[in-house]
TrEMBL record:
It comes from Clostridium cellulovorans (strain ATCC 35296 / DSM 3052 / OCM 3 / 743B). Pfam families: Hydrolase_3. This is Cof-like hydrolase. It comes from the Bacteria. One of its GO terms (molecular function) is magnesium ion binding. Keywords: Hydrolase. Signal peptide: none annotated. InterPro entries: Cof, HAD-like_sf, HAD-SF_hydro_IIB, HAD_sf.
């Protein structure tokens, strides 16, 4: 019996119009009623998830969420932090300098706020702020507090530019950080120990849930770690080829109630 299902949001839980379908909503409520833990696992900050947690009744006692691609795991009822695996000022400078050499834009988050050191602010940074309802702050890189605690740093640009960036990333960056492509225009850098798989594993261990009792569902490169970790790793029908390659099961697309299909097949039957 599966006791926990972790769901990516964009391209998985959400339809392309960023809404939850009635079928997916009903399936999640039924899974909760049966006693399964339903955990949103997303690259978004907590503020970008909050309205969905409220809508899905996932802010009750015993509910949890994994944000920043698993770097931050917390209790949604109490706000207590289960795990926050972070980066520091030195990491920011390293990635920022690499972005300059690679000729791409960059932005970063502490726990709640989005910052960019680029005066020519990328439209994808504006998109990130709007999508997550977070404040966007320009800050000169020299003025960043050296005690800052960073959840993630992102290189953001047109897909064809990030395609080039991925091939030109310095070896030392690849070896030092978890690097995931969460969208065609987002390349994310996290602490080497932070990813969705580790976040869900830490939560499952805390709850006494075995690996084989976990389902993880996603659609993109930032979901690979958790899909590989899960007892049942599921790729959406609209998932990237690299995620489908590591999945145990491929469901319908995000616009075809793929999450509801998984819940109905593996939790509610």
């Amino acid at each position: 019996m599966y006791k926990l299902i972790a769901l990516d949001m964009d391209g998985t839980l959400l339809r392309d119009d960023k809404t939850v379908s009635p079928a997916v909503f009903d399936a999640i409520q039924a899974a909760k009623a049966k006693g399964a833990k339903v955990v949103l696992a997303t690259g978004r900050p907590i503020k970008g998830v909050d309205k969905y947690l409220t809508h899905l009744n996932l802010k009750e006692a015993g509910d949890y969420v994994a944000t920043f691609n698993g770097a931050l795991v917390q209790d949604t009822f109490t706000g207590d932090v289960i795990s926050h695996i972070t980066m520091n000022h030195d990491d920011l400078i390293t990635i920022y300098e690499a972005s300059r050499e690679l000729r791409t834009h960059v932005h970063f988050f502490d726990k709640n706020t989005l910052y960019t050191p680029n005066k020519d602010i990328s439209k994808f940074t504006v998109h990130e702020a709007f999508m997550n309802d977070v404040s966007l702050n320009y800050i000169n890189i020299e003025d960043v507090n050296k005690d800052i605690v960073i959840s993630k740093v992102m290189m953001i640009d047109y897909p064809e530019i990030l395609d080039r960036v991925v091939t030109e990333l310095p070896k030392e960056l690849v070896e030092k950080y978890t690097i995931v492509r969460s969208a065609p225009f987002f390349l994310e850098f996290l602490n080497i120990d932070a990813n969705k798989g580790n976040g869900i594993m830490l939560l499952a261990n805390k709850l006494g849930i075995k690996q084989e009792e976990v389902i993880c569902v996603g659609d993109a490169g930032n979901d690979i770690h958790m899909v590989e970790y899960a007892g049942l790793g599921v790729a959406m029908g609209n998932a990237t080829d690299d995620l489908k390659a590591v999945a145990n099961y491929i469901t319908k697309s995000n616009n075809e109630d793929g999450v509801a299909h998984v819940i109905n097949e593996f939790i509610l039957k």
